[in-house]
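[step 3/7] inverse_fold.run input=structure_tokens len=195
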């Protein structure tokens, strides 16, 4: 990637972090992953900023390994996450420690055992960074995985072991891989009904 092109991508990335857009996407040319744009490298951050990111990453990894919820909540708040009251983060939950400032959690939220919340990912065609919003009263079930750039609506439930790739509307229960809304009368995914 040329220097001017890299500078433009870094400017878009920094603008995303400072703004409120839900997702930043950097598409790779002709499907090739280009390692010259990576938040872990000196191409995006200076040496001191990179050292700070790595220190923060290590601290959050350590705190996530603790069995109690309150140090996790406090540490993520300290590093920029917006977290409401009465939030419970279960044991072995993984919350992407590279971007704690992209996390917003409302009041009365439960994140179940072994759940995983990602703020960045690399696919075959792009590098994506996205905000994750868990609105008031939602539940993220044990072992489920949330991709970057989604919102779990107020009072919504993500069933255990679900992979959530898109936002979940308020007061909706989703389940499966990929997660789909359940038909409340039978507790089966809505599109599995027989005619």
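[step 3/7] decode complete -> sequence:
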């Amino acid at each position: 990637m040329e220097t001017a092109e890299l500078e433009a991508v870094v400017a878009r990335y920094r603008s995303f972090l400072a703004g409120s857009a839900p997702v930043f996407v950097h598409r790779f040319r002709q499907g090739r992953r280009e390692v010259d744009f990576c938040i872990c490298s000196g191409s995006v951050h200076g040496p001191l900023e990179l050292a700070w990111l790595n220190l923060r990453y290590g601290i959050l990894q350590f705190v996530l390994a603790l069995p109690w919820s309150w140090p996790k909540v406090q540490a993520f708040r300290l590093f920029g996450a917006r977290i409401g009251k009465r939030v419970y983060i279960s044991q072995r939950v993984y919350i992407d420690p590279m971007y704690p400032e992209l996390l917003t959690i409302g009041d009365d939220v439960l994140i179940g055992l072994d759940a995983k919340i990602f703020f960045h990912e690399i696919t075959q065609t792009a590098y994506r960074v996205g905000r994750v919003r868990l609105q008031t009263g939602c539940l993220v079930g044990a072992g489920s995985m949330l991709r970057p750039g989604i919102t779990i609506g107020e009072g919504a439930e993500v069933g255990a072991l679900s992979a959530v790739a898109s936002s979940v509307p308020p007061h909706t229960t989703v389940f499966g891989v990929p997660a789909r809304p359940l038909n409340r009368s039978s507790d089966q995914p809505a599109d599995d009904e027989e005619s």
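[step 4/7] annotate
The chain has a mean pLDDT of 89.
The CA atoms of residues 5 and 40 lie 18 Å apart.
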